[in-house]
Amino acid sequence: MGKFIRLKKGFTINLAGKASPKVVETEQPETFVIKPTDFFGTYMPKPVVKEGDAVKAGTPLFHDKKHEKVIYTSPVSGEVVEIKRGEKRKLLEIKILADKKVEYETFKKYSVSEIANLSVADLKDQILKSGVWPTLVQRPFGVVADPAVTPKAIHISAFDTHPLAPDYSILFKGQDHFFQVGVDILKRLTSGAVHVNTHSTSEIATVFSQVKGAEVNKFSGPHPVGCVGVQIHHLDPINKGQVVWTISPAGVIQIGKLFLNGVYDASRLIAVAGSEVKAPQYFKTYTGASVKKFIEGNLNSDNVRVISGNPLTGTAIGKDGHIGFYDQQVSVLPEGNYSEFIGWITPGERKLSFHRSIGLFSFLSPSKERVVDTNTHGEPRAFVQTGIFEQVTPMDVLPTFLLKSILAEDIDEMEALGIYEVVEEDLALCEFVDVSKHKVQEILRGGIELVQHS
Q1: Angle, vertex CA 432, rays to CA 427 and CA 438, nearest 5
Q2: From CA 106, how far away is CA 104, in angstroms rounded?
């Protein structure tokens, strides 16, 4: 029997330009990219291909020198046209010029009954060599899961409350069988339960709530209720020395397809959304796709910021960029490259803010969709302690003091204040409401890496 948890703290950012429930099959992008920078915890990724090599979907591209069994594979078939490196020859990305029709590396197929008789070692081996393993993320620290570890639980957030988030009932329609098989396999990899966390009022609850063998929990409340770290905190908090894994529904479905169909299926729907998109909608593509074909001729203006992911935690990639490994949306917002006199304190009807003195109208009409640009309306200043972070963090964590302990590089204090329970998305709202304009997520990742390597 699952739990029902109602959260009150948080803030839902209601932006204009949500994707309409229309799925478009268009000509596929020419290039696809896999970026080691998408995977926290990778150590000196080493390419196993060179420029000019032909690859199939599921062909190894690189591996982690620390965890050599964790293989990162190609999402499509084609030719490796660029291996991009940065300072000290750090591997930044591998670009593939895709074939018109995707060809697949073949892995062993299993029936449902055969899967039940496989050993844990056999299950892990198939997931590792196919390239599906990086969909498993380990807490604490939000790094790619260590295959040598047995987690105390596995958590799946079956809804998303980030701004402009895609509708999971559209993304995963008709995937129930693969999802169930994926859950059955994940149950074998943990000593505890597999938690499927749904929203109490969302249609997606009907998509995954019938899953068997998992604890189905229901959540309600404002963002960040959809963040898996918040859900873990209220279901089974992480203490020092403990490990849990998380995975998206897309990752669970990939595991199911791998064992039933014998292929690494990196196909996915992505939502292209935002106030600057003429026709916000869903597109069929593959992991790492170039966004060029999805936004070309589909923008209201040229002065925009194209983001892989959501506006709170996503990465700016430009109009010729590629979608990140874990992202299933592309957000396009007006670029805020302008200055305004005392704009940070001037209230206005169009402004969206958690602070009532500035965003009064957003409180009077919370259901109204807002057009928000990327302007921060102010420059970084002294760390002002207002207590506002705690109002948008539905966890027994004190973000203000945690961030200050990180800046002071006090590891003992970080541990006492809950750094093992959070990653960037859990505190992203703090960055949005921060009157001091600090890069909260960047600070947090710096603290996580300090603790991780201490």
Answers
A1: 80
A2: 6
Q: Residue 207: phi, psi to the nearest 5?
A: -80, -40
Residue 344 has pLDDT above 60, yes or no: no
- Token pair of 305 as six digits: 């910021």
Phi, psi at residue 410, to the nearest 5°? -95, 95
Burial 51-63 (b: 16+ CB within 10 A, else e): eebebbbbbbbbb
Could you report the per-residue pLDDT of 384-439, keeping only the tens digit for each?
A: 777 899 999 999 999 999 999 999 999 999 999 999 999 999 999 999 998 888 89
CB atoms within 10 A of CB 46: 12
Residues 310, 316: Cα–Cα separation, whole Å: 10
Distances (CA, A) of 129 to 49, 59, 177: 15, 9, 23
Domain ranges of the chain: 4-261, 388-452
pTM: 0.93
The DSSP result for 239-277, as a single string, is: -TT--EEE--HHHHHHHHHHHHHSS---EEEEEEESTTB
**CA–CA distances in Å: residue 199 to residues 196, 222, 227:** 10, 11, 11
Angle between helices 440-452 and 399-407 (to 10 degrees): 60
Checking if the pLDDT of 323 tops 80, the result is yes
